[in-house]
Amino acid sequence: MARQTETAKSAKPSAAAQATLQLVRKRGYLQCGVSQGLPGFSNPNDKGEWSGIDVDFCKAVAAAVFGDASKVKYRPLNAKDRFTALQSGEVDILSRNTTWTMSRDTSLGFNFAGVIYYDGQGFIVKKDSKITSAAQLGGATICTQTGTTTELNMADYFRGQNLPYKVLAYEKNEEALSAYDEKRCDAYTTDASGLYAQKLILKNPDEHLVLPEVISKEPLGPAVRQGDAQWEDIVRWTLFALINAEDLGVTQANVDQMKASASPEIKRLLGSEGAYGEALGLQSDWAASIVKAVGNYGEVFDRNVGPKTPLGIPRGLNALWKNGGLMYAPPIR
Question: For the whole model, what pTM was predicted?
Answer without folding.
Answer: 0.88
